[in-house]
């Protein structure tokens, strides 16, 4: 009878220890789950800062190369460029890096996708129109919405093989490139328009001189 009581107490002690260990393990797991949410929030915030830096640099560069900059006095242009360069320098002092965890296949897919975009960019000077069409088909391959034009199916399969964060960065890069081309087109059209208007005025003045 005494031995039975001893065994019962021993079993009770083991049960208490097991229950306590399970509770402790559960609390630790809950803490790690909460920390994981904070880690993801940190990565998202850092990615947002990265994107904001890219946008600011693009906007400063766009202002420096705008048509308005060409239509002001040299002194004003110089002063504005000094301000723009100061802002660009301060923006570049902000360094944020969010490393993307990739497996070997995702790493290879990213290299392949980057190489394709770089090849199109290198053709800008040779054939801007064709390069723009090619970029549009690459961008359509990254869009979840119904694309307005053709889709580069090969590029799409490559992008799908990339990590999710890389897919977003590839799409953002293509958006930036297309905006830059659009701005270049506008600048060229404005320049051609000014030249055309100038030629027309010159022709009118010449004709009036003969009359």
TrEMBL record:
Biological processes, Gene Ontology terms: negative regulation of protein ubiquitination; positive regulation of proteolysis; protein stabilization
GO molecular function: adenyl-nucleotide exchange factor activity; protein-folding chaperone binding
Keyword Magnesium appears in the UniProt entry: no
Highest taxon above the source species: Eukaryota
BAG domain span: 109-189
Keywords for this protein: Acetylation, Chaperone, Coiled coil, Phosphoprotein
Coiled-coil region(s): 25-59, 164-194
PANTHER family associated with the record: BAG FAMILY MOLECULAR CHAPERONE REGULATOR 2
Complexes and interactors: Binds to the ATPase domain of HSP/HSC70 chaperones. May interact with NWD1. Interacts with HSPA1A (via NBD), HSPA1B (via NBD) and HSPA8. May interact with DNJC9; the interaction seems to be histone-dependent.
Function field: Co-chaperone for HSP70 and HSC70 chaperone proteins. Acts as a nucleotide-exchange factor (NEF) promoting the release of ADP from the HSP70 and HSC70 proteins thereby triggering client/substrate protein release.
Protein name: BAG family molecular chaperone regulator 2
Organism: Trichechus manatus latirostris (Florida manatee)
Underlying gene: BAG2
């Amino acid at each position: 009878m005494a031995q039975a009581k001893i065994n019962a107490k021993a079993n009770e002690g083991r049960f208490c220890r097991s229950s306590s260990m399970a509770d402790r393990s559960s609390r630790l797991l809950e803490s790690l789950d909460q920390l994981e949410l904070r880690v993801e929030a940190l990565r998202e915030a850092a990615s947002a800062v990265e994107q904001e830096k890219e946008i600011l640099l693009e906007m400063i560069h766009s202002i420096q190369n705008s048509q308005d900059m060409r239509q002001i006095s040299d002194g004003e242009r110089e002063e504005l460029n000094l301000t723009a360069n100061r802002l660009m320098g301060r923006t570049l002092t902000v360094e944020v890096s969010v490393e993307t965890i990739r497996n070997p296949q995702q790493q290879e897919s990213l290299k392949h996708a980057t190489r394709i975009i770089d090849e199109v960019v290198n053709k800008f000077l040779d054939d801007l129109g064709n390069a723009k069409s090619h970029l549009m088909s690459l961008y359509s391959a990254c869009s979840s919405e119904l694309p307005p034009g053709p889709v580069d199916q090969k590029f799409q399969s490559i992008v799908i093989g990339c990590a999710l964060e890389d897919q977003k960065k590839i799409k953002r890069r293509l958006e930036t490139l297309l905006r830059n081309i659009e701005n270049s087109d506008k600048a060229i059209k404005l320049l051609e328009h000014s030249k055309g208007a100038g030629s027309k005025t010159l022709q009118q003045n010449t004709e009036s001189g003969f009359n």
